[in-house]
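Incident log, structure service

09:12 report received: a user says their structure output differs between two submissions of the same chain.
09:20 pulled the input from the user's history:
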Amino acid sequence: MKTNVLVIGGGASGLMAAGWAANSGAYVTLLEKMRKPGLKLAITGKGRCNLTNIAPIHEFIEHFGSNGKFLYQAFSRFFSKELINFFQNLGIETEIERGGRVFPISNRAPDIVDALIRWNKKNGVQIKTNHPVKRLLIHEQKIYGVETPAQNKAFHADAVILASGGASYPETGSTGDGYELAKSAGHTIIPIQPALIPLETAENTALQLQGLSLRNINVSVLFKGKKQTEAFGEMLFTHFGVSGPAILKLSHRIVQALNAGLPVEISIDLKPALDMHKLDARLLRDLNANGKQHIQNLLKGMMPRALIPVCLETVKIQYDKPAHQINAAERRRLGVWLKDFRLQITAHRPISEAIVTGGGVCLKDVDPKTLQSRIIHGLYFCGELLNIHADTGGYNLQAAFSTGWLAGSSVVQKNGYIH
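09:34 re-ran on a clean worker, output below:
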């Protein structure tokens, strides 16, 4: 069958780009290197798939930092409302959860993948699995196809959409191939780094607290002892360090600092609703009201049990000391620790464990109105391959779907395909 458009990669953006281009009139072939499209999409959101967020566009874009404005064109044409309606038409009902996050009611990410594959096939997309791409075929700054490793087989088309994803979770096929393909076409690649990545900490405090989840806490990031940024929410202790939504949100800044050789600490405020004065008053009241209790028992009402040994060891108070014997200096040390529990960050986990890859194709080389390359005619980009990423909450998947939609529609609009 004739092919007008080749889509390289069958993740969220690739499946959207291929399906939309075919639905709009193009003959589309999707080349996926793995045995099945959507392997990474099938495990997103801890297997539940946080599709999008109902935040307004201006707030949504803020989650992408300084590069967020690049997405305005894509979001203004295909945003959360359109995405929710799109999946509803595919038989996927959604629900809104805390923080405006949108999930399929089934809580099954594979349902999203299966629905997208069915939609692509219904629209006539030829999906070819186990087809990695080795080379882009370009002549006089115009792309005319790709070459695969299998007997150097070539696929020809008027346009190619690169949607090959980032470099995290390589077992799902995201191994960074697209960066080299884009670079071979003359595109600048902003060095990739892990974003939304768990962090490693010094000493064995995290190991002692492994499995402990803290909620409604505030985490501040300090470079050389100076506060840089903060996040409120949840965090988790692991055998190697820390993870969880608040940590992931802060991780990209921390990765950049670590790569620059800066000393990094995080400060955990376990009582963000209380300032030091109010916290000290509460401690004094509790100590006076429960004078005969050992301090380790009294603290069960102020923090998770697993934290108590860490706290008392740090502030140098004996576990079995009666509350009425706690002096003013010890009380102040206790209050300071509750507001400023410090951990030294020593490293980040490997990029293979990152939820999202930072860096990628330089946005200056891509037209935000169409996502076509400014260097190679007929070459388009979408998804994580671009130098855009956000924190957690459904923002990254919406960007993947929106850029996939824009690339797919732009190809058809440019060439006027009609079956």
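09:41 both user submissions now match this output. Likely a transient worker issue. Closing.
09:42 reviewer note: The chain has two domains: 5-193+358-415, 198-348. The first strand starts at residue 5 and ends at 8.
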